[in-house]
Design brief:
Its EC number is 6.2.1.5. Pathway: Carbohydrate metabolism; tricarboxylic acid cycle; succinate from succinyl-CoA (ligase route): step 1/1. It catalyses: succinate + ATP + CoA = succinyl-CoA + ADP + phosphate; GTP + succinate + CoA = succinyl-CoA + GDP + phosphate. It is an enzyme of class 6 (ligase). The chain is of the alpha/beta class. The chain folds into two domains: 110 residues, 3-Layer(aba) Sandwich (Rossmann fold); 152 residues, Succinyl-CoA synthetase domains (Rossmann fold, 3-Layer(aba) Sandwich), CATH 3.40.50.261. It has nine helices and 14 strands. The strands form two sheets. A seven-stranded mixed β-sheet has the order 3-4-2-1-5-6-7, with helices on both faces. The protein has a seven-stranded mixed β-sheet with strand order 9-8-11-10-12-13-14, sandwiched between helices. Helix 3 packs parallel to helix 4 and helix 6 packs parallel to helix 7. The mean pLDDT is 95.
């Protein structure tokens, strides 16, 4: 079992024929992801990377039974691309685009609220279920199949955590990069819930960062849910100066509870195994799973 994407996912790329879409679609196809086509308005009927190009997402759904989309569309048009995918009936929408205006994402969040779809991102590395599907920009070779789920606001720390887990002789069920923007489709708590309910996932790595309340909300839910599976937590930005955006648009300390130290305290109080450095993630996972 896996969450969000697997070998049966029928994936399309929005922004298929652009440079980013082409590069990452090639990587995804080489990985073995079931890419059934892509969307570039005005280029419908053509072939690209030996896959059909459609003018609209609804056409891709009708003709290729697409159920998953990954979006490589410039920031000015990305919100419309997300809403088009939701309107067409795509179940899993993964938006890689960075720099989408917050006002646009407010509209997107309201638009998809009552629709049967799951948005991951924006400003995220995507989702990977090792050996089955890579729907994102992560280096696939780092990820090996196993029993540890990963949730992260940071792309690079997703890969780092996966690499450490694999080097401990363990592996990954699904890794989800939720994105670092102020408004994202799937929260830390929602991603944790997906992995908590996945039979194959025995342990969860949760990587957060300064800014916002997502990690605190997730930690409180984990405790209320009975701490069913061990969770290893890390919060990035421990040395960040207060009041300054760091890296991600959402990584800005707005109050005393938004700091890395405050979040780490909340995580620990709710039964999460907190590490002080990303270098300790792999060892802590091995320790809590009893393989050391």
């Amino acid at each position: 079992m896996s969450v969000l994407v697997n070998k049966d996912s029928k994936v399309i790329i929005q922004g298929f024929t652009g440079s980013e879409g082409t590069f990452h679609a090639t990587q995804m196809i080489e990985y073995g992801t079931n890419v059934v086509g892509g969307v570039t308005p005005g280029k419908g009927g053509q072939k690209h990377l030996d896959r059909p190009v459609y003018n609209t997402v609804s056409e891709a759904v009708a003709k290729a039974n697409a159920d998953t989309s990954i979006i490589f569309v410039p920031p000015a048009f990305a919100a419309d691309a997300i809403m088009e995918a939701a309107e067409a009936g795509i179940k899993v929408i993964i938006c890689i685009t960075e720099g989408i205006p917050v006002a646009d994402m407010v509209k997107v969040k309201a638009y998809i609220q009552d629709r049967d779809c799951r948005l991951i991102g924006p400003n995220c590395p995507g989702v990977i279920t090792p050996g089955e599907a890579k729907v994102g920009i992560m280096p696939g070779f780092v990820f090996k199949k196993g029993k540890v789920g990963i949730i992260s606001k940071s792309g690079t720390l997703t890969y780092e955590a996966a690499d450490q887990v694999v080097k401990q002789g363990l592996g990954i069920t699904t890794a989800i990069g939720i994105g670092g923007d102020p408004i994202i489709g799937t929260t830390t708590k929602e991603a944790v819930e997906l992995l908590m309910n996945d039979d194959e996932t025995e342990c969860i790595v949760m990587i957060g960062e300064i800014g916002g309340q997502l990690e605190a909300d997730a930690a409180r839910w984990i405790k209320a849910d009975g701490n069913r599976k061990p969770v290893i937590g890390f919060i990035a930005g421990q040395t960040a100066p207060k009041g300054r955006t760091m890296g991600h648009a959402g990584a800005i300390v707005g109050g005393s509870d938004d700091t890395a130290q405050a979040k780490m305290k909340i995580l620990a109080e709710n039964g999460i195994h907190v590490v002080d450095s990303p270098a300790e993630i792999g060892l802590k996972v091995a320790e809590v799973l009893g393989v050391l």
